Amino acid sequence: MRRITTLKLSTAIAAAMFGQLVFAADAAAQSVGGAAPPPGQAADTPAASPQTNPTPTAGQATTDTGGLGDIVVTAQRREENLQKAAIAITAVDSSTLTRAGVADSAQLTRVAPALQVSTIAGSASTFYVRGVGNFTTNSLSDAAVSFNVDGVAIARSLAAQAVFYDLERVEVLKGPQGTLYGRNSTGGAINVITAKPALGELSGNLNAEYGNYDAVKLTGALNLPLGDNGAVRIAGLFSNHDGYYTDGSGDDRTRAVRVQFASKLTDGFKLTVGGDYAHQGGRGSGATLYGLDPDKRIGITAPAADAMFASTFAGLAGTFLNPLGNDFFNDSQYWGMYAQADIKTPLGTLTVLPAYRYANVKQRSYGGALSYNEGLVDDQFSVETRLSSDVGRFSYILGVYYLDERAKELASYNQQYFTAFTNFLSRTKSYAGFGRLTYRLTDRFRLTGGVRYTVDDKAANLYSNNLVVVCPAVFVGGTCLGTPPLPNTFLIPPSLQGPGGALIPVQPWGTSGAIVQNSRPVLNPSKEFRKFTYRAGVEYDLGPRSLLYATYETGFKSGGFFSSIDDPVYQPETIDAITIGSKNRFFDNRLQINLEGFRWIYKGQQVTHFKLNSLGDTEFVTENVGKTRILGAEVEVRARVFGNTTLNATAQYLDAKYQNFTYANPALLGLPVTGCPFTPGANSTFVVDCSGRRPPNAPEWTLSGGIEQIVDLGRAGRLTLNVDARYQTWIYTAFEELPQQIQKGYAMLDVQATYEVPGSKISISGFANNLTNENVVGFSQPHPRAPSLIAESLRPPRTYGVRVGYKF
Questions:
Q1: Does residue 18 surpass a pLDDT of 60?
Q2: Do residues 301 and 325 touch, judged by C-beta distance below 8 A?
Q3: pTM
């Protein structure tokens, strides 16, 4: 198998090299007679060519002149053509995001083949890039894929919502970002770039959408000039739809507004200031249970699910589980402010970016087959300062970064006969200095190097009341039928505490002979994590529109803490990544072929999951496990044919394998919940060994493609037809890798038809996303005390509707 895998990757890389040699002559021929490119930059199509696309602004596609449009990105902290950026990146413009129905972070999977996003509980999302990521729901663990809005890193995935409106583009960076980006980018980065004020311009847009599930969505933006060198932009979002599950969960009630001001104060000083506010309401995300028909999308609190809970024996409690209450909700607010000053100095362009973000999350969710009650207040202040310049054959970026995040979380994990009532106070201070240098040996050959030194200073106060219901008769073959479940509340009820909140270690519970045991771990851990990360790369322009590059980059995600009576500290994770890539345009910008091969070594991966401690209590722990090898290749093709027809296709192959992945699980309550083999270990444990298996969210093949056909109707207007399809092979949907947690391979199809009314700026679209109504599991989790119950979070079903847009 290893030889076959290596052969596949070698073939992909060889194809890239062969393609360079075949088309180098064509590319060189196109440059004859044109002006020489500036040092270190490949030339565009000569200005005299009728197929030339004018230089766009950042994120904007070029004017339609018969060739493929360009997108300018800022992924490397400077504006550059996507095709000339020597990095692994997918960039998606605003029109593609609208067509794909991307309204939240979980739907980015539809447009970025390397990215897997799913909803865990409430508004929490998990991000994976090529199998690198982790499940994070509370304030004590960080995501492995950095989520950034307008250059500001969002520390909590809970707060990565309600930003997908009035956008310029979304950039998905694949692989570690160990030099130019802030903290915790072992898997990659997602950059959301909003539409900025257009100086001196009066413009705007309004889109109204109605669809099934009684979906109503309104988005709009108004750009007002403030003289010739200033502008203010106001954008808003109103989004409603009914629940995607039969119990009404999986709905949406989102309101958001964003205001930005920009001014070019002088020729060398530009200032942009922005603020935004969002509220998410409704019932929140939902789930179903494994064993129920996913095509019926039966909610986890529906009668059929109630029956499954009522027939499941709760083991140590000596009785059966109860149906869940249909009382989940989401009442969360997010707001923030930022300012960006770009100042030209004799040493280069100085960029200063201070920002503040605030999240107030209140929600109850049953997405994991248990009740997850959360009240989180998180605020973060960050500032990044960069100096960038081009001096002779050198280009450089130097910068410093600072983050101060404070979180207060009151939460409870109610599993009916076990509940952890937690009170977490955590603080992180992160400091970093970084630099990136590019040296142009010739006009075509460049060397790049980058370094970053990060210091993460973490401290926490962790207070928890862990209550477990035990039936003593169980140990002699008896039961305690009819024992009531523990109260499903945010805070521990006074009846379960002594005077003044004193601990009551053991007390009777109900009338069936059961007891409640109460433990109260109080922890005050603190630790400093330091790491030096770096990047080295080479770039070579084979022709004016052909780039060949290779990079080696390291990544780091700091360690942290969790609430436990055992060892509460987990260590950092690291990744080493080798990438070889090629980006090409041929035939007067009508054909684009990009190729990439990569090899990642992922060490000390942080895995967050439910686990029993040495007393038999359930804990939500994060621990480091082994090493993972990820090998693969990606091919992206775009073609403009017949003037009005554009084709695109992307194929990604991923060979991901745990090379060394073992962990211990207490044997107190029986066999571990895992699909991996295990053996008895020391100190009454089982040693689970997942080595050689495939990690979660790492499909072997991901294929996507689409066609856009423009039909010119003359005086009757214009019709644009879009068909987009995506296919991926099977994946594990969670850490346990049970056979029930396999999502089989599936395909999704999206279609849209847009009519542009002649003589006006009105468009009318009809659309259908997930046309064949594939009900796909994005995340799954066994009930911690009754693992035969597995909750499944489904991706959105078929949605369709009509959209009317107006621009001026």
A1: no
A2: yes
A3: 0.88
